[in-house]
């Protein structure tokens, strides 16, 4: 059972005895990572993560736990991001969209999982599949946007694929040969939870349920039926900040009283009320509204508490108090210092437009404040003068959990 604890508690619960997951390092493995070099560096198979003691010039091995942050070079170094793409974003489940974006037979929709281009296809029988959106000929992107097609044809040399991914035609193949039967589109792992579509570039990864764990049950217990919600809108944004900085900002509300006055006027962010939860590959924050909320957003309704979930490596899922609602989206690295995010907002069909607009404006204000925060942090770590920072051991426990997972998976 996963515990939820108050910030005053100093010992985090563990989940002992979980079976080892395929191809993923065991929890608690000691990483061996050399210090990431400043300036130009080679492209090694592993990154370095030793920490340098400035007073002695010696190096200490990074621990996957503790109050010291990741090396700040990890937020600017392209070599680190390359390794994260290979070892994190190619191996874990990521939210990519909704089933209602691709409902009709023979329809397709393009998206991405990390830097991996993804092609979602619903074939003539209604089966939903995910493929690598890359032609097996010369590597061109096969499809752009969304639409309906009976076949999938690459615009470069017209290699053509069936909706099940098979290569069915290539110009001059009868004349020149060289076309192998197995040169179909590469299939990716795909699973759904309610209306939500998750993709894993590793088709042999453990099931999505191993990573979601109790999130669906917690959502139901809060009074939210994800299958009964209606999609309302998608908010998209880009940040001039590393994806980990954006993630870490989501994972703590230590900054809320100072940086989010509107949020803190509605939600109770005191350490005795703001509850934190961690498990193997996820983390969550739980907060009730203040006894007397002071703001334009009315949090009263069937949903009594806010839930802010994180699924490693980059999926966030929020439930606000009030009418049944849910927002979900990924944090996608575009470059070492640039990140793309989107949030899909879903609400109860009978939620009033007035309440919905209040909630969306409330959330948008928090997002605008967060943009300034993460871009300020990026400017600071970019300076290169300091090596690292410090974490508050209780208030930023979820940040430490996330950072320990990053180190563990990269090791």
Question: Would you mind describing this structure in some detail?
Answer:
This protein has 411 residues and is α+β, with helices and mostly antiparallel strands. It has two domains: 94-192, Rieske Iron-sulfur Protein (3-layer Sandwich); 205-410, Naphthalene 1,2-dioxygenase Alpha Subunit, Chain A, domain 1, CATH 3.90.380.10. Helix content is 22%, strand content 25%. The chain has helices spanning 78-89, 173-176, 208-212, 215-221, 243-250, 256-259, 261-266, 353-382, 397-410; strands at 50-52, 59-61, 94-98, 107-113, 116-122, 128-132, 146-148, 152-153, 160-161, 167-169, 189-193, 196-200, 230-239, 275-278, 282-287, 306-311, 315-319, 325-335, 338-347. The strands form five sheets. The protein has a seven-stranded antiparallel beta sheet with strand order 13-19-18-17-16-15-14, covered by helices on one side. A four-stranded antiparallel beta sheet has the order 6-5-4-7, with no helix packed on it. Strand 14 (275-278) and strand 15 form a beta hairpin. It is globular and about 75 Å long. The two termini are 28 Å apart. Mean pLDDT is 86; it is low at 1-65.
User: From the alpha-carbon coordinates, what is the Rg to the nearest angstrom?
Assistant: 23 Å
The percentage helix is 10-25%
- Mean pLDDT across every amino acid position: 86
Number of strands: 19
Strands side by side in the biggest sheet: 13-19-18-17-16-15-14
- How large is the share of residues in beta strands? 15-25%
Largest sheet: 7 strands, antiparallel
Concise structural overview:
The chain has 411 residues and is of the alpha+beta class. The chain contains nine helices and 19 strands.
């Amino acid at each position: 059972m996963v515990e939820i604890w108050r910030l005053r508690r100093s010992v985090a619960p563990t989940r002992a005895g979980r079976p080892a997951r395929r191809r993923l390092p065991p929890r608690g493995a000691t990483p061996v990572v050399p210090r990431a070099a400043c300036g130009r560096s080679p492209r090694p198979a592993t990154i370095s993560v030793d920490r340098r003691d400035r007073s002695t010039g010696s190096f200490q091995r990074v621990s996957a736990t503790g109050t010291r942050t990741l090396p700040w070079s990890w937020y600017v170094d392209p070599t680190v991001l390359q390794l994260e793409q290979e070892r994190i974003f190619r191996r874990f489940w990521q939210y990519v969209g909704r089933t209602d974006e691709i409902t009709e037979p023979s329809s397709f929709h393009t998206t991405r999982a990390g830097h991996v281009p993804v092609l979602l296809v619903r074939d003539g029988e209604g089966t939903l599949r995910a493929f690598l959106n890359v032609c097996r000929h010369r590597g061109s992107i096969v499809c752009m946007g969304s639409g309906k097609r009976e076949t999938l044809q690459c615009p470069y040399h017209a290699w053509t694929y069936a909706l099940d991914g098979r290569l069915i035609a290539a110009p001059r193949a009868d004349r020149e040969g060289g076309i192998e039967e197995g040169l179909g589109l590469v299939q990716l792992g795909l699973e759904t939870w309610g209306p939500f579509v998750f993709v894993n570039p590793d088709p042999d990864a453990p099931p999505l349920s191993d990573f979601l764990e109790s999130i669906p049950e917690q959502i139901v217990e809060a009074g939210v039926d994800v299958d009964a919600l209606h999609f309302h809108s998608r908010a998209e944004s880009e940040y001039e900040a590393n994806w980990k900085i954006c993630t870490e900002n989501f994972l703590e509300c230590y900054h809320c009283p100072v940086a989010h006055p509107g949020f803190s006027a509605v939600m109770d962010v005191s350490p005795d009320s703001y509850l934190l939860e961690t498990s193997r590959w996820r983390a969550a924050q739980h907060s009730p509204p203040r006894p007397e909320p002071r703001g334009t957003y009315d949090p009263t309704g069937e949903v009594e508490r806010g839930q802010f979930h994180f699924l490693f490596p980059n999926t966030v899922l929020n439930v606000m108090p009030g009418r049944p609602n849910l927002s979900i989206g990924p944090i996608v690295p575009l470059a070492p210092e640039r990140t793309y995010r989107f949030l899909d907002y879903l609400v109860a069909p009978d939620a009033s437009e007035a309440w919905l607009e209040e909630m969306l404006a409330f959330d948008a204000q928090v997002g605008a404040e967060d943009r300034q925060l993460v871009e300020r942090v990026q400017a600071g770590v970019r300076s290169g003068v300091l090596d690292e920072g410090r974490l508050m051991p209780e208030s930023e426990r979820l940040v430490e959990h996330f950072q320990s997972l990053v180190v563990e998976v990269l090791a």
